[in-house]
């Protein structure tokens, strides 16, 4: 059995590779720039750009199971190439944005990939995480700099998830394989509690041993800052998402615990174990 893991530079993909290796499963790690990957010993690498169909057949040769990033532009080509290669199971890194109503391009993109994979008849599981804890990295420079974080919608609720929990969940599903209990499911993955964005900043600053002051800013005044680190259409989806959650707790699920057998990590754990080492580098 060989598992192809796409999006090799991403934090989720790295966790999936580590978990599969620990279970003794052969893994092929792929990315758009395979030479830039730093795979663990014993892991082969391959070029996969999901938007470039010609990269798929060589990378899929001999592969049984795939951990798939959701790139809608190339999904039909992926489905065709994976079918030709005899792939049996596809686990999609989707998004809980597919559950939101109203215009939302992030949700549309992930829904397109979910629909295509489901329709192709693979054993499939759609992992639907909400916001990643790692999104909080955007606040590190301000917390470590002048200690002022300018925040739109500070009272917006977020049950963000540690990327390691997404990876651990994906590993359980991939190891269960086709015919396993997760076939045809689409678990919504969250952290163990809803925090406001203000509380996230405060917990991150506390983990770093820093004082922080939060300055609420008007959404339009934060567009340029956000657009520097993400595509415009993501900003267009995020601002209404935060507006809708303003003053409200976010949905919390127990899917991570149900699937992996242990509770999801807290945001404070992420801040201590992941963000703090980044800050001292
Ligand atoms: N951040 C969140 O809060 C959040 C929440 C829910 C769902 N998600 C979804 O989770 C995924 C990762 O999120 P992220 O924030 O880490 O996003 P990101 O920084 O945009 O993406 C990271 C990974 O996506 C891979 N990727 C992008 N385009 C690709 C393509 N054409 N072909 C192959 N791989 C491609 C990259 O692979 P390379 O190694 O080749 O660069 C990279 O490893 C995204 O699909 C995102 O929509 C994110």
Compose a concise summary of this entry:
The chain is α/β, with parallel strands linked by helices and 281 residues long.
Rg (CA only): 19 Å
Bound molecules: NADP nicotinamide-adenine-dinucleotide phosphate
Number of strands: 11
Order of strands across the widest beta sheet? 3-2-1-4-5-6-9
What is the arithmetic mean of pLDDT?
A: 96
User: Termini, distance in Å?
Assistant: 38 Å
Provide the low-confidence segments as ranges.
none
- Assign the CATH architecture of the domain at 3-132 and 161-191 and 251-265: 3-Layer(aba) Sandwich
Largest sheet: 7 strands, parallel
Structural class: alpha/beta
What is the H/E string?
EHEEHEHEHEHEEHEEHEHHHH
Strand content: 15-25%
Explain what the structure shows.
- This protein has helices at residues 11-22, 56-60, 75-85, 105-120, 140-144, 163-176, 197-208, 219-227, 232-244, 255-260, 267-280; strands at residues 3-5, 27-31, 44-47, 65-69, 89-93, 123-129, 148-151, 157-158, 188-189, 195-196, 213-216.
- It is an alpha/beta fold and 281 residues long.
- Strands 3-2-1-4-5-6-9 form a seven-stranded parallel beta sheet, sandwiched between helices. A two-stranded parallel sheet has the order 7-11.
- It has a domain at 3-132 and 161-191 and 251-265: 3-Layer(aba) Sandwich (Rossmann fold), CATH 3.40.50.720.
- The structure holds NADP nicotinamide-adenine-dinucleotide phosphate (NAP).
């Amino acid at each position: 059995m060989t598992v192809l893991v796409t999006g090799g530079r991403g934090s989720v993909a790295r966790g999936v590779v580590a978990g599969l290796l620990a279970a003794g499963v052969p893994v092929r790690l792929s990315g758009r720039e395979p030479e830039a990957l730093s795979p663990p010993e014993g892991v082969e690498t391959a070029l996969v750009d999901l938007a470039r169909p010609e990269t798929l057949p060589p990378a899929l040769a001999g592969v049984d199971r795939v951990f798939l990033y959701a790139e809608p532009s190339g999904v039909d080509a992926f489905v065709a190439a994976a079918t030709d290669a005899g792939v049996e199971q596809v686990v999609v890194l989707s998004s809980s944005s597919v559950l939101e109503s109203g215009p939302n391009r992030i949700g549309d993109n992930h829904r397109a990939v979910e629909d295509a994979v489901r329709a192709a008849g693979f054993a499939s599981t759609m992992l639907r995480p909400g916001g990643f804890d790692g999104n909080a990295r955007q606040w590190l420079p301000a917390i470590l700099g002048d200690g002022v974080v300018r925040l739109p919608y500070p009272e917006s609720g977020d049950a963000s998830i540690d990327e390691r929990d997404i990876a651990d969940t994906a590993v359980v599903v991939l190891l269960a394989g086709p015919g396993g209990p997760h076939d045809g499911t689409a678990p919504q993955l969250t952290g163990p509690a809803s925090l406001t964005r203000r509380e996230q900043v405060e917990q991150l600053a506390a983990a770093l041993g820093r004082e922080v002051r939060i300055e609420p800013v008007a959404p339009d005044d934060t567009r340029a800052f956000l657009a520097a680190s993400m595509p415009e259409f993501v900003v267009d989806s995020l601002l209404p998402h935060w507006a809708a959650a303003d003053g409200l707790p976010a949905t919390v699920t127990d899917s991570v615990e149900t699937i992996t057998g242990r509770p999801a990590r807290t945001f404070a754990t992420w801040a201590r174990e992941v963000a703090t080492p980044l800050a001292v580098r």
